[in-house]
């Protein structure tokens, strides 16, 4: 989004990516209604690229369930489809792409495997992956891990998931399930390291263990062949927000603020921070990085705190059940929580 915003201001950005074509990143397969609006404003047609409309939230904890309408229409879309569309839009606006793997970053210099890039402004958008020299702190005693599998389309799966996003709460974790383009189901989990350890360190054993304790989740997993690849990422610092930065370094997305993924607002923060950073650079140049980081921190605190509170409640079996019960009794509470966790 930063490259698109810069392009609209007449600035040609250089985008460094280790892949020539967009990959299917683990996180970011759900687009909130605010993210959808930002994309439309940027000139990206979600219907054209196959985004699946989402109108309702379904909550599960043990044998309890509840549904609530979303404030506005959201979408399920793979990162491959989204990132491809955003790359194309940025290229139309003048962005140049360099295929390289970044090894380290210092003030004014990005060191890649193929080249060094010297610039007065660096927009750091590496998602949940850190770059040497700019690591985020990991202090949790039982850190959160991310996992993702994609299940092939089927008519029965479509019947279950069409028009909604599901959030399955369980002890020390949760899973989000949403249909994406083509009818495939994207299942993303955030779990504590100790839970994976109880499954012998095997992601598939963990999924089966969770299914044995959660009937609705097991039902969704039953559509998997068992041969699907499980993507993983370790030690995600959910709740962290950058308090400062270095001259000329604009921290975007998860490098600036890591919202718990159950909120479905990670892409919202990525897009909002990209727009803010680009506009700040156009107005103030490299000297605007500190001002931008402060502004992002102030703007991200409320949604990150709201999502972290929901996560802390939901990852405990009894409290997660109470959360679902409250949503069933008063769907407006779920709606307020969804609104509070938007940037």
UniProtKB/TrEMBL annotation:
SUPFAM superfamilies: FAD/NAD(P)-binding domain (SSF51905)
InterPro entries reported in the protein's UniProt record: FAD/NAD-bd_sf (IPR036188), Geranylgeranyl_reductase (IPR050407)
Entry superkingdom: Bacteria
Record protein name field: FAD-binding monooxygenase
């Amino acid at each position: 989004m930063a490259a698109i915003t810069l392009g609209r201001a007449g600035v040609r950005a250089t985008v460094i990516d280790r892949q020539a074509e967009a990959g299917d990143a683990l996180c970011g397969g759900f687009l909130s209604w605010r993210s959808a609006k930002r994309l439309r404003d940027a000139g990206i047609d979600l219907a054209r690229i196959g985004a699946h409309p989402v109108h309702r939230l379904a909550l599960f904890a043990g044998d309890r369930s509840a549904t609530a309408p979303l404030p506005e229409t959201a979408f399920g879309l793979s990162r491959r489809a989204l990132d491809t569309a955003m790359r194309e839009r940025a290229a139309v606006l003048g962005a140049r792409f360099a295929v390289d793997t970044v090894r380290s970053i210092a003030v004014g210099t990005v060191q890649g495997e193929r080249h060094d890039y010297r610039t007065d402004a660096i927009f750091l958008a590496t998602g949940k992956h850190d770059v040497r020299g700019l690591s985020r702190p990991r202090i949790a005693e039982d850190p959160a891990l991310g996992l993702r599998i994609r299940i092939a389309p089927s008519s029965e799966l479509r019947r279950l998931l069409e028009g909604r996003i599901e959030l399955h709460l369980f002890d020390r974790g949760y899973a989000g399930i949403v249909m994406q383009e083509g009818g495939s189901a994207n299942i993303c989990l955030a779990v504590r390291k100790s839970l994976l350890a109880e499954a012998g360190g095997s992601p598939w054993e963990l999924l089966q263990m969770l299914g044995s304790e959660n009937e609705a989740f097991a039902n969704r997993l039953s559509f998997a062949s068992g041969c699907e690849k499980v993507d993983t990422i370790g030690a995600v610092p959910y709740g962290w927000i950058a308090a400062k930065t270095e001259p000329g370094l604009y921290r975007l997305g998860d490098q600036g603020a890591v919202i718990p993924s159950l909120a479905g607002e990670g892409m919202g923060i990525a897009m909002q921070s990209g727009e803010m950073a680009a506009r700040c650079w156009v107005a103030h140049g490299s000297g605007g990085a500190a001002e931008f980081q402060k502004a992002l921190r102030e703007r991200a605190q409320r949604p990150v705190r709201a999502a972290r509170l929901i996560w802390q409640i939901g990852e405990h079996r009894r409290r997660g059940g109470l959360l679902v019960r409250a949503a069933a009794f008063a769907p407006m509470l779920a709606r307020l929580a969804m609104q509070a966790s938007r940037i």
